[in-house]
Amino acid sequence: MRNPKSHSASRAVVAAWIFAATTAAAQLSAAWPIPALEIGPAVAGADLIVAGRFQSVPLASEKVPGGAGFPVACVSGGQTGVGVFAVDRILKGADASPIISIRMPCVSASLVGEYLLAFLSDTGGTFAPSKSAFFLPGAPEARTDGLSPHDAVVAECAAVAGSRASEQGAVATALQLLRADKSPAASQALRRAMLELAGSARTDALAALLSQGDPAALAPSLAILGDRSAWAAARLALLPSIAHAPLGPDFLPFLTQLYSSGEASDRRAAISGLIQGGAWALSLLAKALDDPDLGVRHLAVFALGRVTHQPAWSGPPYAPGRRGPDPFVQHEATYIAYWRQWLAQHPQP
Q1: pLDDT value, residue 233
Q2: pLDDT of residue 113
Q3: Regarding beta strands 13-19 and 48-56, do their DSSP bridges make them parallel or antiparallel, or are they unpaired?
Q4: What CA–CA distance (Å, rounded) separates 43 from 119?
Q5: Low-confidence ranges of the chain (pLDDT < 70)
Q6: Cα 140–169–17 angle (5° rounding)?
Q7: Which residues contact 7 (CB under 8 A, 6 or more apart)?
Q8: pLDDT 10s digits, 158-187
Q9: pLDDT at res. 25
């Protein structure tokens, strides 16, 4: 893949037509104005992906509420003007420096200087933002030479996550994208981020690895769980990542320790982490049938049905806050009796 830095025309300034559309966003440094997306579809849906910076953009109209320097909700079609974007490198697309006609959400001077990845679609001679993504945070230090477009974007996200210069919102966005991607390159980037980051960002990287069932998450998860203050700080981020995660038998000590908690929400998370388990999960699921918390018992029945491939006896999916009579409560005694009998007939070593 050509590195545009090696060409005299590679730093060419390209014109960008800015059309203020309909989306609202907070300041760019705090929340990136992008839709929910995954790297794979975003790369596949773009004809051109470039990294670089806006050198200038029009200010938001003073008549737009909340204008004067940051993205805002638009009225009457928003403000139209010309912005200038300097291409640093091309991750996907033509070798020639492109001329880009961009239509994007309300923008202002807050975009100037931010290092961005632009996902663009060919509109016939010019380019416009892809329907899959507009802009993602990028990192000047990212190494993308020789990588496929997908892995190049992963490398950009990894560089953003590991850069001390990145804003907290950009790091969070990069980690979310790596978490959803689940490719070997993304998992490797998350493992590195977990080792290099600190505080909530490290917890987010660990949560992402947990959600993927990555063995690299086991030791740090056990360490955090064994430290009361560390667990109190991390539990709200980690618990949702355990639910339905593809955890293997190596995680049983972690889930067993988590199940020993006096907090019902911890025990529910532990049992939900067994839903994709195998025979190794049965002993803990059997114990959970006698749990004092209804939610834990419900999840245990559901997990048993999944683990043993008996969907008829898995009960309804666990749905706290369900309106109307709970179908599990109506038939709980029948489910519990069935599984106690089944487990007695299939003793585990």
Answers
A1: 94
A2: 78
A3: unpaired
A4: 8
A5: 1-36, 56-84, 95-111, 125-129, 132-133, 324, 349
A6: 65
A7: none
A8: 999 988 888 888 899 999 999 999 899 999
A9: 27
Other Cβ atoms less than 10 A from the Cβ of 80: the count is 12
CA 340 – CA 317 distance, rounded (Å): 20
Closest Cα to residue 104, out of 125, 129, 79?
Answer: 129
- The answer to whether residues 79 and 59 touch, using CB atoms and an 8 Å cutoff, is yes
- Is 247 within 8 Å of 255 (Cβ atoms)? yes
Any residues with CB less than 8 A from the CB of 237 and at least 6 apart, and which?
200, 203, 204, 207
Residue 135: predicted pLDDT: 76
Cα–Cα nearest to 130, from 78, 173, 91, 169: 91
The whole-angstrom separation of Cα 332 and Cα 313 is 11
Q: Are 91 and 149 in contact (CB under 8 A)?
A: yes
278 three-state secondary structure: coil
- Per-residue CA distances from 49 to 54, 67, 101, 117 (Å): 15, 29, 14, 7
Q: Which amino acid is at 210?
A: L
In three-state secondary structure terms, 324 is: coil
Instruction: Quote the tokens at residue 182.
Output: 């689940």
229, 230, 236, 238: CA torsion to nearest 10: -150
Residues 6+ apart with CB under 8 A from 81: 17, 18, 57, 58
Alpha carbon 341 to its chain centroid, in Å, reads: 41
What residues contact residue 290 under an 8 Å CB cut-off, 6+ apart?
297
pTM of the model: 0.77
Contact predicate 153/136, CB 8 Å: yes
